Amino acid sequence: QVQLVETGGGLVQPGGSLRLSCAASGIFFSRNAMGWYRQAPGRERELVAAITSGAYTVFADSVKGRFTISRDNAKNTVYLQMNSLKPEDTAVYYCNAGGTYRFGSGGYTPSTYWGQGTQVTVSS
């Protein structure tokens, strides 16, 4: 049974930073691509960033240069470091495991394995 647990969300002022973590179990973590998505009220869930088993990465245009994604295979954990946060980054952030990274287009198609989400609120 795949289990994904996100932590690290919270309230932060504009310009601040947060680091989200997603601990995975029930999968062969090191062989799987991982992704971070977010969903704001009234909007569709959207890809934020993804990382392959070989550490290839892809980012949404809206977060390029501000967010980084990394993984620690020894800890079965993927991270999302978010810097220079803006109010429009406010959303529930979800972890996804085992999706398909499209090397041709640099995109990521999610699997059916999702975490429960963690709220990120950027506000003064």
What does this protein look like?
The protein is an all-beta fold and 124 residues long. The N and C termini lie far apart (40 Å). Strand 9 and strand 10 (107-109) form a beta hairpin. It has no helices and twelve strands. 33% of the residues are buried. It is globular, with a radius of gyration of 13 Å.
- Annotation field: number of helices: 0
- Poorly predicted residue ranges: none
Strand count, sense and barrel status of the largest sheet are: 8 strands, mixed
Average of per-residue pLDDT values: 96
Helicity range: under 10%
The shape is globular
Radius of gyration: 13 Å
Give the ordered list of helices and strands: EEEEEEEEEEEE
User: What's the β-strand tally?
Assistant: 12
**Head-to-tail CA distance between termini:** 40 Å
Measured by DSSP, the beta-strand proportion falls in over 45%
Structural class: mainly beta
Question: How would you summarize what this structure contains?
Answer:
This protein is mostly beta strands. It has strands at residues 3-7, 10-12, 18-25, 33-39, 46-51, 57-59, 67-72, 77-82, 91-102, 107-109, 113-114, 118-122. Strands 2, 4, 5, 6, 9, 10, 11 and 12 form an 8-stranded mixed sheet that branches.
